[in-house]
Amino acid sequence: MTTITAGTLAVLALVDSTSFGTLLIPIWFLLTPGRVRAGRVLLFLATVAGFYFLLGVALVAGLGAVLGDAGALLDNPVVGRLQLLLGVGMLVGSFFIGRKKEGQAGRPGRLLRWRERAMGTETGSGVGGLLSLALAAAVLEVATMLPYLAATGIIGSSDLGAPARLGVLAAYCLVMVLPALVLLAARLTAGRLVQPLLERVARWMERTGGETTAWIVGIVGFLVARDAATRMPELLSFLG
Predict the structure, then answer these.
(1) Contacts of 222 (CB under 8 A, 6+ apart)
(2) Would the pTM of this model clear 0.70, i.e. be above it?
(3) Which of 20, 122, 185, 225 is the most buried (most CB within 10 A)?
């Protein structure tokens, strides 16, 4: 593997490190009031990195060619209509997310309760919710992480042996979670310095958590519906 190829993979890994699962959720965990549950943050990052490592092993081994047949399934008119209904349903439902019912003012938002369970600050909470969140975040991002898919293609087409490919892939996944690990170390060693800023961000997230969730669901729903519509010529001709 040349220096240029290694540098390309490093850049792609750093781009992937800014995704929802590899950076935004860990930052959200670091905003948890009180003592940082470093073990849980590390477990989350290890789960995400492990998922992508196993996925990368499958892709590098040639499973990507088999998965490519899934495109034919998506072209099925019935599947397209179901996907369109799902996207429209998510888009419409996003308008009702985050609305406070009467008598609920001042209660923690759903996002904050998820964080409490994931970080173990809620009584009786285990690691199951944390692992489920990590896997869900990784699975939902697979299709959008184009740098990762490009990186596995580069690794798979290289002249490296199988052990070396696994090593490169493991290093790539480590770089993906490296920024979050650096932020975790900073939070543990300089908590007093960063705590005021984190508290302000936490208050902002508490106020806007429902709205943020609504925007995410709405945007994802729109993209899902748009993708389905582009594969339905009859719908496009009707709108035209």
Answers:
(1) 87, 91
(2) no
(3) 225
